[in-house]
Task: structure prediction
Amino acid sequence: MKSDDFVKTAGGPFSGYSDEDHPLGSYAALAAAFNGGLAGLLLAARRGDRLPERVSAGDLLLLGTATHKLSRLLTKDKVTSFLRAPFTEYQSSSGHGEVEEKPRGKGLQLAIGELLVCPYCLAQWVSGGFLAGAILAPRATRVVASLFATLTVADFLQLAYKATEERA
Result:
């Protein structure tokens, strides 16, 4: 029995949820992996007295902007499509160097595909990575986050420039 077969099994915990293929068992595994990693990070950081008293507004803005950009790059960029290809199917170009894809497969492959085509969904994982970096290697993380934050600013300026050109 595959990990997601129990979803449709009579009496299983997810029985009756939907007739469509929703890999709830794989979603649960991904959620457990994320939360387990976060719990492990927080426990290790607490033991090593590495948890900051607070996160500054500047760090929130920096890491939030970097999370936005890296999530978008990983889920939509043409150049990163090789990372998504085992889990997705190309649909079309969507402009500005981005592509539209749909998840494919069943079970864990489908669940990962759904994660990899959704910048909002992947942002939680990226944010978790930046949080880990901010705790374990704050200086290096700020440098990496700054790269993605400046790229975000550059993207908005490119779009504003193009819009100004089109109005002229």
Notes: The two ends are 63 Å apart (CA to CA). The helical segments are 24-47, 57-76, 81-84, 107-116, 119-136, 138-167. Residues 5-167 form one domain.
